[in-house]
Amino acid sequence: MENQETQNVEKKEIKELTIKFSRKLAKPFTGKDGKEFVAISIPNADPEDKKSWEEFVLPVERVHDDHYGSKTLWAKLPEDGRPSLPDR
After folding, report:
1. Which CATH architecture has domain 13-78?
2. 3-class secondary structure per residue, 25-38
3. Are 42 and 53 in contact (CB under 8 A)?
4. Is 70 helix (H, G, I), strand (E, B) or coil?
5. Distance (Å, rounded) from C-alpha 79 to C-alpha 16?
6. What angle do CA 52, 56, 58 make, to 5 degrees?
7. Which residue, among 75, 68, 67, 61, has the nearest Cα to 25 in the 3D structure?
8. Residue 38's CB: how many other CB atoms inside 10 A?
9. Residue pLDDT, tens place only, 17-42
10. CA 16, CA 31: separation in Å to the nearest integer?
11. Are 58 and 84 spatial neighbours (Cβ–Cβ below 8 Å)?
């Protein structure tokens, strides 16, 4: 017998943003747990700013080749800022 609460739970729609970036900004690596990730660098807006670039990391499954250009990659990120999307 199912709980009424679980029957009434609606799936929350996840809004996503698609970002495109140069292949040069993506650096694949293997985590300590053996999983594959991609570190994506964000260039400084000011060319005179010599600080280190910021980075964010995504699982390799979330980063895709752009079919229209071999120099770019793309990824979908959740609009609300969560670090990863649930598996579908």
Report:
1. Roll (2.30)
2. HEEEEECCCCCEEE
3. yes
4. coil
5. 5
6. 150
7. 75
8. 20
9. 888 899 999 999 999 999 999 999 99
10. 25
11. yes
